[in-house]
Amino acid sequence: MTPAISLDGITKRFPGVLANDDVDLTVERGTVHALLGENGAGKTTLMNVLYGLYEPTSGRIVVDGTERSFEKPQDAIDAGIGMIHQHFMLVDSMTVAENVTLGTEPRKWGGLAIDRDQARQDVVDLCERFGLAVDPETRISELSVGVQQRTEILKTLYRGTDVLILDEPTAVLTPQEIEELLSVFELLTDQGKTIIFITHKLGEAMQAADEITVLRDGRNVGTVDAEATTREELAELMVGREVLLEVETSSYDPGAVTLSVDDLTVTNEQGIDVVSDVSFTVRRGEVFGIAGVDGNGQSELIEAITGLRRPQAGVIELGDREITDDDRRERIDQGMAHIPADRHERGVVMDFDLVENGLLGSQHAEAFVNNGRIDWKRTREHTETIIEEYDVQPPNPDASASALSGGNQQKFIVGRELARDPQLVVATHPTRGVDIGSTEFIHERLLELRAAGVGVLLVSSKLEEVRGISDRLGVMYEGEFVDTVDPEAVTEEELGLLMAGEQPAQEVSADERE
Amino acid sequence: MSESDMLARVKERLRAVLRRSAQTSAVERLLISTAALGLAVLVGTVLILVSGRMTTCTTAAATYFGVGFCYDPVTVFDRLFLGALGDPMNPLFRPLHGEFAPPFRKGWSPFNAAMAVTLRETTVLVFTGLSVALAFRAGVFNIGTQGQLVAGALASALGLLVLAPIVPGGAVGAVLLVPAGLCIGAVAGGLYGAIPGVLKAYADANEVITTIMLNFVAAQFALYLVSNHFQRPGSQVVETVPLPDVGTIPSVVFDPRTNFSLLALAIAIGFGGVIYYLLQYTTMGYELRTSGLQPAGAEFGGVKTKRTIIASLTLSGALGGLGGAMYVMMILGNFQTGVPSYGFDGITVAILAGNNPLGVLFAAPLFGIIKSGSIVIDTATSMPPQLVDVLRGLIVLFVAMPEFFRLIGRRAIADEPSVPNGGDEDA
Amino acid sequence: MRELPSLGRKTLGGVVVLALVGGVLSGFVDKNALSSTLRLSVPIAFAALGGIFAEKSGVINIGLEGHLIISAFVGIYATNLTGNVWIGFAAGVLASTLFAVVFAIVCLEFRADQIIAGLAVWLVALGLAPFLSTVIYESVNAGSAGFDPITIPGLSEIPVLGALFDAKPPVYLMLLAVVGSWYVLNYTAFGRWVHASGENPQALDTAGVSVKRVRYASVLLSGVLAGIGGASLSLSLGEFSGNGQTMVDGRGFIAIVVYLLGNYNPIGTFLSTTLFAGLQTAQIQLQSGYLPSSLVQTIPYITVIIVLAGVGRTRTPDAAGDHYESGEE
Amino acid sequence: MDRRTFVRTLGVTSIAGLAGCTGGPTDNGGNTESTDGGAASVAVVYATGGLGDGSFNDQAQTGLERAKKELSIKTEHSQPSNTSEFSRFQSRYAQSTSPDYDLVCCIGSLQQDPLSDTAPEFPEQRFMLIDGKVDEPNVENYQFREEEGSFQVGHLAGLLTKSGLSTGAASTTDATSVGFIGGKENPLIKKFEAGFKAGVAHTDDAINVTSNYVGSFNDVTSGKEAALTQYSNGVDIIYHAAGNTGTGVFQAAQEAGRYAIGVDSDQSKTESKYADHILASMVKYVNIAMFNAIKGVVEDAFEGGTATTLGLKQEGVKTVYGKTLGSEIPAETKSKLESSKEKIVSGKISVPTDPSNV
């Protein structure tokens, strides 16, 4: 049988970067194929080439036995290839049906009007055929991430896709939603569809895929049978060396309370409560983790704590000072460091160089400012220290933030925030998009601060991260704390259930440690 | 070393310079602005020739390729740029023809009347340009500099008329009144700018709309106030009584009747430096710039965004108000309704300057020349002076498309230029 | 039936209330006042509709004023040349469309800053129209034949609303254009693409529709619509006057104000336009009262500010003003 | 041939020229004409509003054209778009050496202030100012009693709205109501308003006068809407003092089938499209002032430092009946106007210059 996709010697070169280097890839029809690799290994670039977003510098693309050249995504779509990006390509203000049919709307009246009824019916039919539950009339902005993803899948199916590419589809899902997604994979392959998905999670690749191709530094370093391989083998292929998969934490010896949140209620822009009556404390010398599926109020909670959003009700105390009504600047002055979730929007000013970014948040600090005059020399020295300590690439303080890769921006932000000599660090997804080496380094720094008696509040959608370095773990679901658990005691399944809103069974206790 | 070797080396050197300059944004900015000016002149030339065939005249102003044209582009641009400087060039100075007479025309003084007009327009444009640039840097689209200028102009005129009887005459009076007038203008402009600031910060009202509306309101309100309460008796136009001499900015070097004061220009240039310093070296400026580039990032960095919006519009308004005070205290000597559109011109100045306060100091004179030169064109050629407005628009248009020039620049650097032949290069 | 799409209901409500207030002030009970309001609305409404298409697709066209100016002049000139008002009208629209082509190329091919390029379009037109007028007519002012009114027998006799059936062609065209734009934006595939192109161009691109083409089409459409507005302005009178800010006199900027106020919805925008035009009509009536006319003339502007402050923010499309290159990550 | 037709023909010729490449200079020799040493040179700085306003500036231009023809002078003119440009144009012409202008004519009250600076700066240059007064030995001033002329047309409007008038294209209503539309609200235009109101009141205190200001001399659209509003409120006759904006008033009169009164020049001729609706015009003989001043210069009789005020008495302002409608106005009305004119000339009636004093 001819393979669904066959890539032959694909090379993609960007100015100064060789993203893909002579990559071969064969995907059989009706199978699930995982593309595994670290960030920056060239997985997404390869798939963008297959999808016609990039033209390859050299190499051949063969679809279903026919050689193709794609100049634009439409060419790939015409060849039966569909792609679901990490950032969903959905128009928030439109409904599911409108998004699914975008660009290929069914028409009536000689093409003068969109046939809305037809569009809705088409989506309903598709849902039934592939067993996907989505209401066609709901606006995207009102849907959970999982359903949005299903909408994306519907979009590609609607266009008659045979080969579905998914870029890190599980990154934002709960364990339960991941399960559901994997069963959707099965339904799709049963009907003859072929699936390629990008991931950097070993377990997932092994669980969901029939075959796994590992990319490293833009090269294909091996294709293995998912049944036959081991985690260790894959990890070694990915990183090129043996990897320690566990983070070691030192002894847990918490001190006084540094952050106390009491009955906090926060509303979103529409005036709806997205955080309801949340209470918890973070002590000096401890890492308090918050787990939960994205969009369950974590970001609003963090914004309220860090002073970026005014809470509706409740009390926040930092040390022994109430800071509920303090603004952002006063909180910074009180020793609250914050690694924000969205580095492009908040963490760095993209058009500033690194020196100017080094000052962000310290523009009133006496260390850098005399009587309103900024001491750029001292700021530059400070920036150079961060760059060196956190191995920010390129090590050029005059480079603009936008010239840095996401991982390096993140390292810079972490370096700047942790250098504040804080009493509390509020870290949101601190290692998102950062390579394994730097992730280790950032974790080490957070643990060092913990050892030095700083309180750390950690939010992450990476379960292994929050479980790995937290001392206590609060689980959020729909704006409430479902439970606070011992991360070492709880199993992944139990955690998944909590994240899905199941009330905790009383038995989850210290006895059940693995 | 052979000639072709040398040529290749010079070209390589040149290309390296170009390559390096393509990286430094200030130089690039300058190159692009110059190229935009050049291209605008080129398009303008075509326009002049075409319109010279569209109209009818008895004698041709110029003949090119055996075709007569009613307007001569050479004369037009000569009048536009040199006329605005009071014709400095000596007609006998023709270096291209190997004649090196003194470059400046005999009897030409840099302190001539045309130059005074150019510089006094420049002075006001520096203020309005700074006003717009500052707001833009803070991410606030202040279209209301015009209204703020009117508010400042009116307030300083009325304020000085109230104060004049109180202070003594002579130098002492001037020392007291001139700064007072400027301050009143700045405060009034600032307060008027604060209105859209407050509306934006606390009512989320789009500042583009509110400032456009407030421009109309300012003009009408000034008309009401002056015509109903401060009308100069016996005058046929809506204006206040003239300011006493001690309330006007004393002219330096230039003839007092030219209504231009070097002192005012010096103050304007000083403000350019001050605003530059403010933006680059102070916490306030840093916060303004941060909010302008990335509001969410500014919020993250502890910038009080609402306060920054209000502060930037207030400051921007104050600069506009100062421009108005200058207009009243230097150019008019009283307040009259029908204030020229300095505020809108400030937008073009700021755009050409890339919103850089020091850039404003270079862009303002260009538009000063254009404004002053358009008068010379009207009186010295038969060309309708509105052409100058077209040129101004074209300059702005071309400045808006740096990518176009980069493309050309890149091509010039990358491609081996098709060398025509060596012989062309000698003098 | 679905609710009116993408329309802040609060905004619409506010505008409707204020349009009514404006209406009452101007004596909407009066057919003449309504006629006057409709006539004053024409150039503003067309320019605003054009602005909606451009900005909803992600290209802010701040140069609407320029499109009005150039089409106003060319309309008169071509009418003189051909002796036919409709040909003149078409030529005016064509001139404005050519400006839109230049604007689109500059923005979409050379990635120009849309605001600056839009201002440039305005400045060029502001100079070019009186320049050409002077070259051709030796005066910044020019006259030609103009449109004749079309009166629909019977219907025009209806009290008040009879104004809708007794007007010059531009007024009818305006009513058609408002409904047509509303229909196109909400019920056709093109309208949906325009929306997607302004909100999430990547979504549209990956769905296989060229963002560039949609944006080109939208900008050209904005040129066409604004051109109709400008040609209507001058040809309703058979006059072009080019001194100062020309006869357009800021109407293109008011157009931006009204579509922001109408939250990019053609119907809401039309209501905002009539609010503004109604207040203009009303202020003429109010001048005869005790307030000095200079103060009365500020009423429309101050009202807009108050409405805006009361109704609150208008949400611009997410990608408006941003350049989009296919294949960009 | 009236100006508009002339202008249109010009436009047609020129585009034909473009298409057929026959435009451009008619004398294709390309040589600049040598300056004729004998002829006097005159420069004119027009008022904002520009040529083609069918009113003030055009009226001034007819004086210039006449001088050109009869005195064979050379002329140059400019049309500033902004008041701040006046002083620059004035001094530009004053400075000019080729040609060295014998006279610089400054049209419009807004030029008074700039000229009071410019004139002393160039004591050798001769200036003439219309609608203002600058006390300098090198300036000849001409001012007009617009209120007197306006009084006359106010009287006319008052009489006709009372007696009623019906002509082919237009008619009055039963109501007795007249209106005034001004451009920008300034003291000069208020003189027109004051005179008009006084003239109406002189006819009958009971006649209603509505007055509106459009806020611009260029906004034809708004002028038309304001006039239509007045007509729909029952106004029979509108007198405008609004420059270009006034064209809108005539259009409104045409649409509403009512009457209007023109200003500055005989607008039944300059705006002949609307002659069926223009009862009369309050002509301000700016052209005569222009011609006389130029003639004075040519004949070396320039009288610097003088201020000539031209009222009804000097025939500087005058009511000129419309070329079409003039014959429809009853002789009785005309004779009443004659008698009120005599009273003004003799000082028996004093006409106010501020509308609030009416």
From TrEMBL, chain A:
Keywords: ATP-binding, Cell membrane, Membrane, Nucleotide-binding, Repeat, Translocase, Transport. SMART domains: AAA. InterPro entries: AAA+_ATPase, ABC_carbohydrate_import_ATPase, ABC_transporter-like_ATP-bd, ABC_transporter-like_CS, P-loop_NTPase. It is found in: Cell membrane. SUPFAM superfamilies: P-loop containing nucleoside triphosphate hydrolases. It is a peripheral membrane protein. GO terms for cellular component: plasma membrane. It holds the Pfam family ABC_tran. Its main location: membrane. Residues 5-242, 259-503 form the ABC transporter domain. One of its GO terms (molecular function) is ATP binding. This is ABC transporter ATP-binding protein. It comes from Halocatena pleomorpha.
UniProtKB/TrEMBL annotation, chain C:
It is found in: Cell membrane. Its main location: membrane. The chain crosses the membrane at residues 36-54, 59-79, 85-108, 115-137, 171-194, 214-233, 253-277, 289-311. It comes from the Archaea. It is a multi-pass membrane protein. One of its GO terms (cellular component) is plasma membrane. GO terms for molecular function: transmembrane transporter activity. Keywords: Cell membrane, Membrane, Transmembrane, Transmembrane helix. PANTHER family: GUANOSINE ABC TRANSPORTER PERMEASE PROTEIN NUPQ (PTHR43370:SF1), SUGAR ABC TRANSPORTER INTEGRAL MEMBRANE PROTEIN-RELATED (PTHR43370). This is ABC transporter permease.
From TrEMBL, chain D:
It is found in: Cell membrane. InterPro entries: BMP_lipoprotein, Peripla_BP_I, PnrA-like. It holds the Pfam family Bmp. It comes from the Archaea. The keyword Cell membrane applies. Its main location: membrane. This is BMP family ABC transporter substrate-binding protein. It comes from Halocatena pleomorpha. The lineage of its organism: Archaea, Methanobacteriati, Methanobacteriota, Stenosarchaea group, Halobacteria.
